[in-house]
Amino acid sequence: MKEENINLSSQVGINLREIRRDKNISLEELANISDVSKLTLGKIERGEANPTLNILWKICRGLNIPLTYLLTFDENIEVYRFKDAHYLFEQNNNFVVNPLFRAHGTTEWCRVRIAPDSRHSEFHLPGSEEMGMVLNGQLEIQVGEKIHQLNQGDVIKFNGEELHTYINYSHESVYLMVSLTYKNP
User: Fold this and answer.
1) What is the mean pLDDT of residues 53-79?
2) Of 99, 103, 117, 162, whose CB count within 10 A is highest?
3) Residues in Cβ contact with 116 at an 8 Å cutoff, skipping those fewer than 6 apart
4) Average pLDDT score over the chain
């Protein structure tokens, strides 16, 4: 898995540098709009850092791009194979995102794992919509001030730019299929 992370870090760095240059944004400007330090951004672009999922979300919000734009996929694949997976981890590995395909147009799909007895908060680009389907177990999702109890097979749809928290109170990992739809990526 470690070698895959090195390759993934390099992919993210190369793609980030290309996107930043295409948008004609300096590292300093990106640091200001993403709330990620210039030093960290430079390390990511050089493939010297393995950024957490939280850092990647900040960069994506700053650049106004879907998360999968930072990854490289075989564009000719029609079947997704878990052995070829990209894994993006939160710092403590309690929240793992497995992007399935690069967003074409406005929607990207991910498989998400939420570790036992853990929580993860995030928000996405303005105008985004998030949908999640619980694949196993039970999960609580707080969107703004509202709390939603979800069971296996339940689906939720909400404004992705609003702060939301996934909470797994159980002693087993909970898996979700999540789609993010962006208004204007």
Assistant:
1) 78
2) 99
3) 168, 170, 171, 172, 173
4) 84
Specify the length of the chain in residues. Answer: 185
- Name the residue among 81, 76, 37 with its Cα closest to residue 59: 37
Residue found by looking up tokens 């985004």 in the block: 128
75-120 pLDDT, tens digit per residue, is: 555 555 556 666 667 777 787 777 776 656 678 888 899 999 999 9
Structure tokens that stand for 22 in this block? 């295409």
- Six-digit token string for 57: 């979300």
